[in-house]
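User: Modeling request: complex.
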Amino acid sequence: MAEPVTNIQLSPSKTLGSINGHDSIVEPNQTLSQDAQLNQENDVVVPTGKRNREDNDGEESSLHPMWKTSLCSFYRSHNNTCNHGDTCRYAHGEEELRPRPDNTWDPTSERAKKALKTETGEKCAVSEDVMMTEAVVDDDDYGSNHALSKCLVHLPRKWSSENLRNFLNEQGIAFKHAKKKKGMMIGFVTFEDEEQLKSSSKDLEGKTIGNKTVKVADVIPRSFEKKSNPSVASHQELDEGVDVPSSGALDAENNDKLAVDGSVSKSRSLRDTRNARKACPNGVSLPDWILKSREIGGLPCKLEGIIASPIVNGYRNKCEFSVGYSLEGKVTVGFMMGNFREGVTAVGEPIECPNVSNIACKYATIFQEFLQDSDLPVWNRFKNTGFWRQLTVREGRTSGNTDPAVTFGGIAEVMLIVQVSTANFDDALVAAEFKRLAQAFVAGGATSQCPTLPLTALIVQDHQGISNVAPADAPLHLLTLPKAGGDPEIGENNNAMDVRIHDYINNLQFSISPTAFFQVNTLAAEKLYSLAGDWACLGPDTLLFDICCGTGTIGLTLAHRVGMVIGIEMNASAVSDAHKNAEINGIKNIRFICSKAEDVMGSLLREYLNMTKKEDDSNTPKSGNDIPEDNACPEAENGEMASHCPENNNAEVGSEVQKDSTSEQVDGISEQAENVTGSQLRDDVNVPKEQSDDPNVCGSGNDIPGDSTCPGPETSEMTSRSENNNAEVGSEVQKGNSSENGNTSMQQFKNIVAIVDPPRAGLHPTVIKALRTHPRLRRLVYISCNPESLVANAIELCTPSPLKIEKGNKDNRGWRNMSSAGLARHRAKSMPISEAFHPVKAMAVDLFPHTPHCELVMLLER
Ligand SMILES: C[S@@+](CC[C@H](N)C(=O)[O-])C[C@H]1O[C@@H](n2cnc3c(N)ncnc32)[C@H](O)[C@@H]1O
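Assistant: Request completed. Predicted assembly structure:
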């Protein structure tokens, strides 16, 4: 998940969720009350008579923090009567209602609705503020007098400058220059004089284009007033899939867990089973999980609760700081304060962001100070010119120590990646600036702290693209770090691609290369992976597919609990890290495939599970006959169990998997013949950094230059896909199928499980098809950073097959405007006939305290 995150549009105030009935607070590791019955009426949750309405503790009841903080639905629906009378812990009417401990109101109450309106209004006001800064304004755009310019917001993105001028002329609005920013909803108008500015601005106010009202905003803030802080930026940027921390907008002690509860339960996409209903074919009865969803507030399965982050402040091990201008026009290194597409370019310092470590803040400050005197310009997002773009601070630890009492909370390694755009700049000047920069970081680190700030590597990433999201193959250069005491310089001849930082999960060491994905909250990730493992119901005869495995974290941390792991990852350097990580931790029963999952998933399943393509294609709904009915599950590490698991302690070879699996060739490419292609899919959503279509990434379907092939396996036990020749996939898989691994031969595996951890866009349709149509895959644990794509993928995985398959509709008009769930619904109709999964349970894990985002784990079984 780009790293974070759930793409949930939430108010920053983090209102309470209502998933567990009236008592919405979920303690970490506490599951929701069993008897809370949910009702979908008005999309809110109301209790049934089952719960205990009276607080038996008499006087204590009045002290209960949730006393009368929720409206009594019984009272409401029974003509204002309730058998519990005054002793009922729920409020009988709005008058009795009390605010909740976090100062929010029962979401079904009039007060909450009123508060929401105000809040939405405020939010709009904030997001509509154009925090364009003086420094990004060009004379060409505004004439020589910035004070005579205005910014118009909510213009149609498609408009050109000519459209804007025509509009102004048609409306009789006088102006001097007008310029529309291509692809954005903003334009700039300059006026002849003060008088024209005033009268035209007045005329422009309230004008509408389509259904949008044009907003007229100042280009240059006349006086600095801190209207916002990066917390706003964080919400907006997170919504775009950008991994940005928030400042401490959220304060109450409990807010983190409440936020997670709130975000999950309030996510409309998660609570909306309409698309799933519609995806169900005519003549086929609705599956139980859809029928029962009404009882649980529209959710596809029970939300078990929230696992809290073991660390709440300074938890981020990676921060990407933008370079830009503050509202005062000062060069600043920090977070964007709003959405660039809406014209917000101001950058705020990260110092008030509680989730950013002190170290990261200090390096941002050092860089910011350096930039005040740099001879090279900062990046101009409008003109796509400039030099300095972004600073990424990645932190590593020497051991799993995060004790704040230990120096820097155990952070012992820091990798700094400075993103620049060197095009059109003089090489000598650039080299001199880099040298100065290295000195500044070393000197700043030495003087600003005692002991010296850790700094392991300083890397420059050269990137010319429009946004700061660089492709995986953007050139990296390692800069030499001068030694503070005049010792010889280090790093001179090293290759940036060889540089690593390290972190620990479950006592395993992970080596992380500069651009590889690694969860930003390591300690919470540890909990996430354990939960996924517990729900996956693992055992010695389990074959685990770790799909989108990154540096191998999930597979490696669970390898000791299974017979064998196959990790699939498209980022070549992450796969290289994964190999290294297996090696340094002495883990042998794991293989990594460097490829896009959509290119290899079908063939891997067939090859590893000993099926011919013919069998696979013609599979009909199966009752799971080959799976023992015995639901015993091996003891989970933290006591969590999947709802029903085949017995998987038995290492006996299942007869159905004893066939020779070497005959099958792979046709990953043909697997891609979907109605909606991956790129179409990704067009509709924000593509996270990790999901690059970079042609140099192995398995991307293009020729691969010699210097960017995947690294070879570091042990003979591991498989790495270094060529993009799909015909080779089969033979490599066959290698994996040989007996070279002794007792990890795949023929022993009776329990086949997939843990998927895709980026924000979710799984590619081809991967879903492969997982869904493989009858031996009975259990799938989905880790999601984006409920929308989770819901879309779940629709395809979980809706019943039709009696007869519809031919795919090639006419894709209108699909661009469809939601991902709508698209999934259409794709589900042409899914080959196969047994559907059903959602069993879900759990949130708070990987991102101080933000409304969390990771969601959902167990699907069949
Ligand atoms: C949310 S990260 C999860 C990584 C890993 N499971 C972890 O927790 O560290 C998603 C990963 O999927 C990879 N990825 C994105 N698209 C992919 C694709 N089509 N096939 C395989 N891997 C993909 C990204 O490179 C990234 O490493």
